[in-house]
Amino acid sequence: MRLFRTLALALVAAVLAAPVQADDLKSGPGEKIAGAFQVKAITGEKKGTTLCYVCKFGAEERPAVVLIFTQKADEELAKLVKAVDEVQKTNAKLGTVVVGHSGVAEADFAKLQETHKLTTALTVAEDKDGPAKYKLNKDAAVTVLVYKKGGAISKTFAFKDTKSAAEKAADVAAAATEVVK
User: Fold this and answer.
1) How many CB atoms are closer than 10 A to CB 176?
2) I need a labelling partner for 6 at 20 to 30 A (CA). Which of 21, 66, 87, 110 fits?
3) 23-180, CATH topology level
4) pLDDT, tens digit only, all 181 positions of the chain
5) Which is nearest to 27 in space by CA: 119, 165, 122, 125?
6) Are 166 and 79 in contact (CB under 8 A)?
């Protein structure tokens, strides 16, 4: 009986101590985007203005959008954004925007842009922790929503860190390519 209890406790401890797999991390609103929210554009054609890119892309009737929320602006994030930029180069109607939140500052994105010359607009959310209605998981350093015209989400990605996001940049690019078809 003691052996059984010991084994059961060891099994419970192992399960609780197991790391969360990237596929298990959930972040984002679910089946449909959660609507309008304001950002300050740090780069791109709207640099220096406050606007709603979700609204802008909707008004332009973009067939698809890649919306990247990030808690960090670093070289690994740049790899992800560059992969999305490559898709946009051959699909001009694809809307793309990066939204910094939870500590990402204007200076962080300005430095990233200076180094990498990214096509995708880099913005900072007005709400410090990102738009609440988007249900961004605080454990997800990067959340990517790939959605179709009208707001139906075709693919959601959530990454615990920017390195994981960079490693899956090809998957994000493939999802963007697929949805814009």
Assistant:
1) 24
2) 21
3) Glutaredoxin (3.40.30)
4) 554 444 343 433 333 333 334 458 999 999 999 999 999 999 999 999 999 999 999 999 999 999 999 999 999 999 999 999 999 999 999 999 999 999 999 999 999 999 999 999 999 999 999 999 999 999 999 999 999 999 999 999 999 999 999 999 999 999 999 999 8
5) 165
6) yes
How far apart CA 107 and CA 94 sit, in angstroms, is: 26
Angle, CA of 81, 83 and 86, to the nearest 5°: 110
Residue 102 in tokens:
């939870």
pTM: 0.87
- Determine contact, residues 97/129, Cβ cutoff 8 Å: no
H helices of 27-158, in order, are 53-59, 75-90, 106-116
Distance CA 111, CA 109 (A): 5
Tokens 């090809």 map to which residue? 170
The number of residues in the chain equals: 181
Which residue's structure tokens are 């913005």? 123
Q: What is the spatial distance between Cα 181 and Cα 72, in angstroms, rounded to a whole number?
A: 30
Among candidate residues 177, 171, 147, the one with its CA nearest the CA of residue 159: 171
Cβ-based neighbours of 173, under 8 Å, separated by 6 or more: 83, 84, 86, 87
